[in-house]
Fold:
Amino acid sequence: MTRSSDTLERLFDAAIELIGEHGYAGTTVDEIVARAGVAKGTVYYHFRSKADLVSALLEDGLRRLAASFREETEGAQTPQEALRALVHAELAYIQRYQAFSKLVMSEMWRVDRDWQASVGMLRAGYVSVFAGVIAEGVTAGAFRAGIDAQTSASAVFGMIATAALDWLVFAPEKKLEDVEPVIRALVFGALGAGPA
Amino acid sequence: MTRSSDTLERLFDAAIELIGEHGYAGTTVDEIVARAGVAKGTVYYHFRSKADLVSALLEDGLRRLAASFREETEGAQTPQEALRALVHAELAYIQRYQAFSKLVMSEMWRVDRDWQASVGMLRAGYVSVFAGVIAEGVTAGAFRAGIDAQTSASAVFGMIATAALDWLVFAPEKKLEDVEPVIRALVFGALGAGPA
Amino acid sequence: MTRSSDTLERLFDAAIELIGEHGYAGTTVDEIVARAGVAKGTVYYHFRSKADLVSALLEDGLRRLAASFREETEGAQTPQEALRALVHAELAYIQRYQAFSKLVMSEMWRVDRDWQASVGMLRAGYVSVFAGVIAEGVTAGAFRAGIDAQTSASAVFGMIATAALDWLVFAPEKKLEDVEPVIRALVFGALGAGPA
Amino acid sequence: MTRSSDTLERLFDAAIELIGEHGYAGTTVDEIVARAGVAKGTVYYHFRSKADLVSALLEDGLRRLAASFREETEGAQTPQEALRALVHAELAYIQRYQAFSKLVMSEMWRVDRDWQASVGMLRAGYVSVFAGVIAEGVTAGAFRAGIDAQTSASAVFGMIATAALDWLVFAPEKKLEDVEPVIRALVFGALGAGPA
DNA sequence: AATGAATGAGACTTCATTCAT
DNA sequence: TATGAATGAAGTCTCATTCAT
Structure:
């Protein structure tokens, strides 16, 4: 038990990092096990295939993400506060799990993978939280009227993700504190949420 | 000459479509030549390697994109008009070259590819046009003051790309005319450009 | 003791069935333990190796076969009666231990296995009984003169085995009572043993 | 074309010999290509898989066998002559293609292989020729009345094959001329075809 | 007496690339 | 200009075996 959970964790960490960096097809099982410090057969003892490992890993990431979302938005009193918390949660998550985030972005619009369902759930989870907050804000008169919650939600999610990865890849010297206000202003403006 | 350019075009089309769908590493030379209807050796007669083919293809896409941008923004009189034209150009381009766009998005934050330079140029081209329009708009007092043009540009570009691909992949029944106003409103709001 | 012999029996049954069906190399230890309902390590607690398990299993089969032969031929008064009993014994054995019989036939002329000696003994046991009865029958004038007992014995054994497996695999709806007379007539004719 | 047919022939010869000796699962692709003197990838250029190679090889053997049968039985005037020719043809074939024959015998009653259909055809071809000759002989009054042609055919085929392989594996010093009369006498006796 | 997570050599297979035509 | 048979390094996966419990 102890050995097992250790092993799985090491495999997940190694796989996330490498696949986030070089993509699924660009990462070999040899590289994963080398970084995890286990033998090759161990992967196939725990998973049916390389693709199966990635599926499990995506579901694990999903669970972590949901947890982080719940924690950060719990105490919000107004739609603005909730939106602000969401922006922060997404940025913090991408910063913390940068490799995983790259992996998700590069597999997001793929239609031919075994884990398509997993990514679909991941996306639905993300987006529906945003959509809920937006719908609530529109109803409450806090955001601009006439906004389509679904389309806006995926657009805002994408804006934050793109901006965050651009930041981390092309301007890693900047700090979260510098980047967050800029992005928050864009998001609040986009949704007509007033000055951030 | 005629035969050759035919061959190249067929190879490009096949490669763009397949790589857009399955990624670079997930697409084989065999698949490309099968779809293009040419023999395998033909690729290596025209290109030094598979990576070389992709580089050429990216540069071709870049040229097409620049042309489309120039055409669409040429007659703009105000920053708002220019911004509106850019939103339209990006959406139309992604709709027309969906596969190529997926390819770009999934290779965008990769740091280990031979054509990294090409993608970098592509991105710089895209973003700098946006940045220029935004900077001009801020200077002219048309957009919100205090906006960081570089960060905003990449964020806005990402928002449009994400929304567009979500649309094409997950809700392909919608039409450009329905989607464009929603996205335009978000962009204008984000930049404080007044009602779209 | 009780537990152990249970375990061994379960392992034997599982191994015979699977190896009879898919061959030695085509059967994995994982499959054997899964069917036997024991853990993988158990095989290596009881046997030195997979080949060792198969050797033990062959010797077990050999013992069973010898017992069945003894039982069935014990009361024979004439060479004809003995031959008739042998034909029945072989058919009944193959019907009862079909999987084991397939295993024997498919490993019979192999020259590169660890248990070659076991199979050799098995074959020698089988064949020498037949050869003894044939020699006796020739001496007694009951069978055709001038028959080479050794060659005839292996030929007759093979005829019965082939006919039996063809029956069980390709025409399993037939019953032993229908098949036995046909085969017995062929054997008696082959050896000039008069009308069966 | 020239290269290709050479390559395929070399692969076939190597595969037949090795698989006949060590079985399908006991033979590696590495061994096959080493003996054939080609590169590993060549197998997978010509065949989808190792199993596919074996299927092709079995069909090739089938064709050769049918040809040899036709040649040898063509001029027979009586059922006895035809039977005599068949016995000779089978013995000669097994002697010439010993490895292939072992392969067939060890895969004959397997029910889980991709090439099951091919082996089925092979068997049907063999057996139906025997059955035809036997039926004809019974009708003509040349063989014992009341014989079931189908069962007898497979039994006789099996007897010859078993005797032949026993001879080649366990008493290779004997010559075809010594073995053939013994086996022929058994076959003629079995079918009541009079003195061979 | 029995377990099952872990191993690693070696199996099958893929695929970018070469080259004689 | 184009072909396609052939290559071999490198990939994914299998499986008999070990060992701490």
Summary: The mean pLDDT of chain B is 87. Chain B has two domains: 1-46, 57-190. Residues 3-4, 7, 38-42, 45-46 of chain B lie near DNA strand F (CB under 10 Å from a C1').
